[in-house]
Amino acid sequence: MDREEESFDKNFASFYDELDELDEMPLLDMIESIKTRYCEFKYVDEGGIKVIQTCKDLKTGRTVAMARLKNDANDQQKEAFLKEARLTAALQHPNIIPMHDLGLKGRHPWFTMKFISGSSLEQILSDLKNNKKDYLVDLSDRLDVFIKVCDAIAYAHSRGVLHLDLKPDNIQISDYGDVLLCDWGLAKVMAAICDEELLDCYAFNPKETNVTIDGLIKGTPGYMAPEQTGLIKSKKGVYTDVFSLGCVLYKILTFKKPFSGAAIKLIMKKTLDCDFIKPTKIDTSIPLPLEAVCLKAMSKDPNERYASVVELQKEILSYRNGFATSAEKASLLTLMRLWVKRHRSISIASLLLVLISIFAAWFMINNLKLEKINAIQRAEKLSLEKEFHVKMGKDAAPRFYQRAQIAFNSFNFDDAVNFCDSAVELDPSLKEAWGLKGLLHIIYQEFNAAVKALEKNGEAPELLDLAKQFQKIKDDDVLALSLDQFLALFKQGMENEQPKVVGGLVHYTAYSEMPLAKRIEFCKGVIIVHNKKLAISQVKNQKIHFEYDRKNKHLDVSHNDWIQSALILQGFPAQSADLSHTKIKDFICFRNQPLKSLDVSYTKIIELNTLENYDLRNLNISHTAIANIYKLRDMSLKTLNISHSAVRTSMNLTGFEDLEKLYIHQGQFKLENLKKRLPNTEIIILP
Questions:
Q1: How far is CA 151 from the centre of its chain?
Q2: Which of 156, 551, 571, 651 could tie 161 with a disulfide, CB 3.0–4.6 Å?
Q3: Which CATH superfamily is domain 34-114 in?
């Protein structure tokens, strides 16, 4: 190397040393200076209401995956999203995807989790089927993945959590072989066995239904258990996840779903009947022991499936280690063959065959003795555990009942049902829980279940009579009441002065999924019946003014001066609403409506505490007794009408710099003061 080149190299090295010195910003200062933690977003995938992106976490320097809801998600979907995040965070296992962070951007939730640079098991199996990939070609390697998934589910079950959406799509495999189970959106907490710290997550459980808040089936057709189809009334349990694991094993063996068809209804019917092709009929090379395990896990009767995921996992391990599985009910000849296979070097010597036979017989007898001893020990252990759970259950039952009351009073009926079910399961003599359970079944229009619960309560004769009356009208708890029948039930509740029945029916119906035309008819009917009791002299023989423009999503229930209550309008899909010239007293009827514009002028509303529509852009509260508008500062209002309201000082308008138009009446404020506070707002003075 000549001097010129040597000089250049030294100068070049010196240049990089200087750059390193410039980059050496203390981490304390760097982290403190970070205002926006996540950046460099890249789209990955999306589902019905959820979007997944990768992004850079500036505080840790790593790439993570961020899940967020789409902008049109409603409050129920946001709540379910947050509950999924909290439950995922509570499960910490090497084969369960870890959650890192949770937060809100405005009122839109998000959470971050580990980013997996790899593929789903579904994609890998699809590529293997089409000869596009050489990863996990060996069945043994695919069984390794399955065993790790079993580890994750066994852990979740030990914590009292059911997954209820097991499928190859939710099993992610990294480029380095990590196996992670994802998507706990349909998970359910089992109160009787869950950890104390998961009791709060237990309140996240939805009511035993097979339809999501989006009206979709809960689970994935092709991998769900018969009890998830909604075609039979059956509770979900550990056996439900065992069935789905059997379906995943079926896909691993055959590269096909066990249940398929041209329509969802056909798939559901096949699932209910467990109508699927045996694996060996698809591929004769599939080992019979594994087919036997698969068939047992996918038994139609939950009692015939494996009692736990651990038992299923042990069967796979037995096959892997050369032992017979219990599912195949192996003959002595098969056991001997497997033994010989596991001990090839010994079996070569024919002179030892007799010794091997003797040893095998001794081994079997000894195993039977050990099994008998183990069975006795397990029975004693189960007896002690049962006594312990019975004692602990009775002590815990009142606490579950108290939580059920809290959930009911806040109209969280699904949580209330689950808490009541757990209370009476732990202590069947707890009458109060049976009474609340019966009330909830009436609200859910399940009158057979209501009668059974109220008879065990024995202290609510009026509710029991009501349940029996409508049991005669509708004796199938799966079917819903017609509009006329529902209004008759609602009216009966009002006439019997049963506010819990009336309030429950209103809130449950308001937040139920139903076609728009049906919702409109229910809203009309309930408003008339409800207000007849409140102001019978005004409502008698009077028709309701109720119009909904589907194109513009505008709801007009104005100029019904007899309406005092319109709670049934909660959850209505209106983007603008007009309830002016009515006697409503608060904003509760607008909860969970995606409103951008609202007119409540000439109403009896006196305060804004119940206004929860934070996406409002236009609001008319003229001719009301509202005086304090401080809460409106949290909204991005563009137009506000406060003319002839109780707002009298311009101080109330501090913080409304983004307001484009303000309507006031002559003499309401001193204009010079108002213009100083709102220099960019057009002020319109009304007579």
A1: 23
A2: 156
A3: Phosphorylase Kinase; domain 1 (3.30.200.20)
Average pLDDT, the chain: 84
- Condensed to tens digits (0 to 9), the pLDDT of residues 470-495 reads 999 998 888 889 999 999 999 999 88
**Residue type at 434 in one-letter notation:** W
> DSSP string covering 416-437, please?
HHHHHHHHHHH-TT-HHHHHHH
Which residues, listed in sequence order, are joined to residue 161 by a DSSP beta bridge?
189
pLDDT 10s digits, 50-100: 899 999 999 888 999 999 988 777 877 888 888 888 888 989 999 999 999
Q: How far, in Å, CA of 348 to CA of 350, rounded?
A: 6
Superfamily covering domain 120-327 = Transferase(Phosphotransferase) domain 1 (1.10.510.10)
**Do 249 and 327 contact (CB within 8 A), yes or no?**
no
User: Quick check: do 34-114 and 120-327 share a fold?
Assistant: no
- C-alpha pair distances (Å), 382 with each of 25, 376, 377, 422, 596: 61, 10, 9, 20, 59
* C-alpha–C-alpha distance, residues 501 and 521, integer Å: 20
Q: Do 102 and 111 meet the contact criterion of CB atoms below 8 Å apart? A: yes
DSSP state of 258: S
What's the DSSP call for residue 343? Answer: T
Q: What is the identity of the amino acid at 447?
A: F
Q: Answer for the pair 453, 437: CB distance below 8 angstroms, yes or no.
A: yes
Q: What angle do CA 481, 484, 489 make, to 5 degrees?
A: 65
Q: Residues 282, 288, 292, 298: what is their CA dihedral angle, to the nearest 10 degrees? A: -20
Would you say the C-alpha torsion 409, 209, 426, 243 has a positive or negative sign? negative
Cβ of 392: how many Cβ atoms within 10 Å? 12
